[in-house]
Each structure stands twice: as structure tokens, then as C-alpha cells.
């Protein structure tokens, strides 16, 4: 479905996301948009959630198409025989039906270009589930016909696959988390292997996520698409601080990141670690609960909660150890940036992604997830040995240099058919 040569006036590449708020996928999209636009390609950013705060600076000269604002009532709402809620129940019933003969028949007839009963049921179900965003995105695809689309994050990927189902667009979808651990509503979970059949390339940002995707079904092409690093001078190690100290976490404040485990570890610290500041950069729905937990444990004074910051590299340069006690991950951009900044890191063994870049005992320490005592011991060990921190930070910076654009560009260009 790839067109080899772009026609005049059409965009070369669209990057589609749910929004441009805080998040690693958003950072990756902006880095890629800025990079390819600088090389003369016509790039457009597209978001599906209207009115969401934009927390990152948009690259100059790259247009943003924001969808999601209601423009009219749906056909189903105006005069259809079913309401959207009823249609949603119908598709849930279809996807959850356990009769093997029906499931096999249904899946066998879901493919790009299909026109039979299975496809009609599938289209009704996706319309009910994705609704307005799907209709708007498909309308824009048909009007503007971008040559290539890179979609990031599962639900956005599913909507893009449905919207581009029978259109001549080179479509690449990117999984950002471990699908074997990430919990989605069941209807979305079941739609993923069906809709991803439309993608020209299904990608993951770690080998572990790639392995999980392999077990979900046959794909046109399955490929590793690593996160690129921003080429920012501010990521140079040390940042002017001769002997940086302190712990730092840069993350969304959600249960996935395990920041409650970090706070639970603070009362257990001893020696130098007990005197080091702990900086938390990020915002999210768990912020109030985490701050209350810190007050309950009497560690509020040691915890500096800064909320979302657009310049996290400034605070990375002041710290010595990056802590990420996640319950599951894909490949967190914040971890890569911390390693590029020359910080020793502490991560959990919950997902394979971080373990692909963190070599235990060399560039960082790996601990069990949901274990405050183990986290406290790791923090004590690094704070008590500044020279070990420096060695690990240097090893981390060397390891992560493989993610610079000169190394990754040929792979990105191949996958995006550029």
C-alpha cells in the first residue's frame, strides 16, 4: 500500500497521537517530526482529543491538525435504528463470543478490502467503539491522502487502522508498552489483533514488546523501532555541577510508574542516601495521593515535587541517580534521557524494555518491582559510593549513544518507506 514517489501537494508523513500532553510517545513524535521536517519533508502532527493541554513546544513550521471536536451528530444518533451504546454492546458481544467456529469465521473474513458480512459487523463495531474520532480521521485521510502515517499508542493505532483500512496509505503503528502486562478494556484488547492486520508495519520500541506482539497474530511486517534521543546540548553529563548528588524521577504520576514504592522506600534510607534530595518531575492523577503518602510517612521535606516541566534535563544535570520503580514499561524516554545525561539508574525487573539498555551492575541496578526494601537498599548502595555512581553514569551514556539519529535514521527511513 506504499506509494514510492510523493505527489505534489500531499504530506509526506503524518504523526498521529491522542494528544500532545506529557508522555514519552509525544516526545518521540516531536523529535521525529522535527528531524524529518528539517530534511525537507512535509510533516504534520495530528491529535485525536480536542482541547487537551499542549505541554511540549511545537516545532516551527510543522502544522497541527486537532480532531475530536464535535462537528455534527453521528448518523446513528440522527436516525439510525440503534444508539451508540447499543452498538457498543453489540460489538462487545461479538468480540466476547466464545464459540470457536464463529470466532474463526469472523477473524478469517476481517482483512483490508473485505466487503462481506464479517466486515460490515466489524465496521459497525469500530464505529460504535471509536465513534467521532474514527469518522473525523477517516474523513481527513480521504481528503488529504498523506503518503505515510505513523501512529503511536494502542487505541490511536486501532483508530488509525480502521480509518485507513482501504486507503492507499503506508501505515506504521507503534506499540509503546508491554501488551502482555498493559490492561486495556476488553473490547480494545480484542480489536487490536484484528485491526493491526491493516498496518503495513507493526512496530515496538523494545525487543520484549516485539516478542509479545509476535504471539498475537500474523502481521504484514513486524519490526523494532527504537526511540531516538533528542540532540540537546543540555543532556551533556554534569551540566556544570562538579559533584552532582540526589535522586530524581521523571515520570507521569500514574500507578504504572510505581512512585508509591519510591515514597515507601524513603523512610528506610540510611547514611548518605538519607541526606540526598529526592526530586519528582511529572504530573498526573496520582499526585495528590503521592503527596499525602509522603506526609503520612513523614518524608515530605525530603521530597521535591515539581509537577510537569518542559526542561527536565536541567534537573537531571543536578542529580546523580535516576530511579524508575515501574510496574510495567515499554521503553521510557525519561530513562534514555537520564542515561544520556550520565546518571546511574535504578529500574525494576517488571518488563523487559528497560533491561535491554540497563546492564545490571554496569550502567545501573535492577530490583524486583513493588519492593520498597529492595529499592531502599539500591539507593543506599549508590549514594554511599559516589565513584561507583560516576562509573555507572559513564557506562550508561556510552550505551545509549547507539540511539542517536545517525545510527537510527536508516532503520526509521526503511520502516516509514521514506
Write the layout of secondary structure elements.
Layout: E1 13-17, H1 24-38, E2 43-47, E3 64-66, H2 75-79, H3 84-96, H4 100-108, H5 117-144, E4 148-152, H6 154-163, E5 170-175, H7 186-195, E6 201-204, H8 207-214, E7 222-224, E8 247-250, H9 259-265, E9 278-281, H10 287-296, E10 303-307, H11 312-316, E11 321-324, H12 333-340, E12 344-348, H13 352-355, E13 364-367, H14 372-383, H15 386-400, H16 405-415
Parallel strand pairs: 1-2, 1-4, 2-3, 4-5, 5-6, 6-7, 8-9, 8-11, 9-10, 11-12, 12-13
Radius of gyration over all CA atoms, rounded: 23 Å
- Biggest sheet features: 7 strands, parallel
What's the number of helices?
16
Q: Spell out the helices and strands N to C.
A: EHEEHHHHEHEHEHEEHEHEHEHEHEHHH
Report the structural category: alpha/beta
- List low-pLDDT spans: 1-7, 71-84, 98-102, 232-240
Query: Shape from CA axes?
Result: elongated
> How many distinct beta strands?
13
Percentage of residues in DSSP E strands: 5-15%
How do the strands line up in the largest sheet?
Answer: 3-2-1-4-5-6-7
pLDDT averaged residue by residue: 83
Query: End-to-end distance, in Å?
Result: 13 Å
Helix content: 40-55%
